[in-house]
Amino acid sequence: MPRKQKQIPASPTDLVQEWALPAGATLGSSVRARGILLELRARLPSSVRKSLNLAAGVITLRMPEGSDAEFHLVATTVSEDLRGIESMPVIPREIEDILSISTTERHRWLKDGRLPSAGTRTVKLRGRARKVTFHVFDPRRVEDILDRDLVDAWREEDAITAAENRRRAGWKAKLTRQQKKTAVSPVAADGSPRPQLLGWEEFERDGPI
Description:
By secondary structure, this protein is α+β, with helices and mostly antiparallel strands. Among the domains are: 15-86; 92-148, no CATH class. The protein has helices at residues 23-26, 30-42, 68-82, 92-99, 103-112, 139-147, 150-182, 200-206; strands at residues 15-20, 52-55, 58-63, 120-124, 131-135. A three-stranded antiparallel sheet has the order 1-3-2. The chain has a two-stranded antiparallel ribbon with strand order 4-5. Residues 171-209 are annotated as: Disordered.
């Protein structure tokens, strides 16, 4: 049985620099904070990406003693990338966590315009040739939705709409059944026109009053 490799604790002589992520950047979401870390890592050389980590809303750069030049270069890059990080677009999994909404709700509200898109982003899946494109969102708009509790209002609107749609469907089904009962033949037995379902055209156009 292979022996587990013993983890070596960080040395007190390691080179360390920390940056606290502002609330305006994370919007109270650990998923968003993790997304910021991954974005910062993606802008660094692959050899030093794992030197950048996140814990309790604080980004930490830790490199071994003796790598002063590389450390200062990476620290400068991270500091520059963190400027204006509050405006970094919000991706789907982040907005779902920030607003506590489902994927279905995100798709529905994006489609009807209540959740406006700030554009699209295309990324290549790791280890695959396939690329995916998805909508991103303006963090300030997301913050406004959060502050105004619009999600609760939208859910209430959706519940009212769903109830109205069920009522319309019930009326339509009932009228269809009534129409079928009268549609025995094109004309009645005495040769007169069969009864017509009055108001059907208006119902199709306007629904039940």
